[in-house]
Amino acid sequence: MTKVKEKSASKTKELKGENYLAEIPRYVLKKGEEYMNDAQKKHLENILLTWRQSLMEKVDDTVSQWKNEAVNFSDPNDRATQEEEFSIELRTRDRERKLIKKIEESLENLWHEDFGYCEACGIEIGLPRLEARPTATLCIDCKTLSEIKEKQTLGD
């Protein structure tokens, strides 16, 4: 496979990984349906498992990419560029490692009766929010307040 084809295939896989939710249809609420019933929890579990799998595939792709691209450049500029690219990739993978941990925590808590309810105020987080961010532990109002307080504390 040529370098251009490899990069194109890698980009396609990367885009698919970032858009993991496109493969999963949205949950359609039924009239009078109880919040956080088994069907909704199974739907969220499917989202979490798919997301985790997508992130794990990225890790595997990165490892194989580094094995293929491990070249010791004689030109200092080329070497510096490669090291910077590796550094950026490592930071990205570290963020994803932390995200995988949050996903696994959500999978553990999914079947607890308080899953889907705000940790701060106790109201429903809402299925649409959980579909968009299944690791959410705060309702949108509490999260917004938290972010405002964080900005004030940091002085931004």
Protein model, in words:
It is elongated, with a radius of gyration of 20 Å. Mean pLDDT is 84; it is low at 1-17. With 156 residues, the protein is mainly alpha-helical. The chain has a single domain (3-115), classed as Four Helix Bundle (Hemerythrin (Met), subunit A). The chain has helices at residues 3-18, 38-69, 76-109, 127-132, 140-154.
Which terms summarize this structure?
single chain; 156 residues; mainly alpha; Four Helix Bundle (Hemerythrin (Met), subunit A); 66% helix; disordered N terminus
What CATH first level would be assigned? Mainly Alpha
**Corresponding CATH architecture:** Up-down Bundle
Strand content: under 5%
What is the number of helical segments per DSSP (H or I, 4+ residues)?
5
Count the E strands: 0
Can you write the helix and strand succession as a string? HHHHH
Identify the CATH homologous superfamily.
DksA, coiled-coil domain
Helix content: 55-70%
Rounded average pLDDT:
84
Q: What's the structural domain tally?
A: 1
**Biggest β-sheet, characterized?**
none
| Rg for CA atoms | 20 Å
CATH domain fold name: Four Helix Bundle (Hemerythrin (Met), subunit A)
Uncertain runs are: 1-17
| Sheet/helix structural class | mainly alpha
* Shape call: elongated
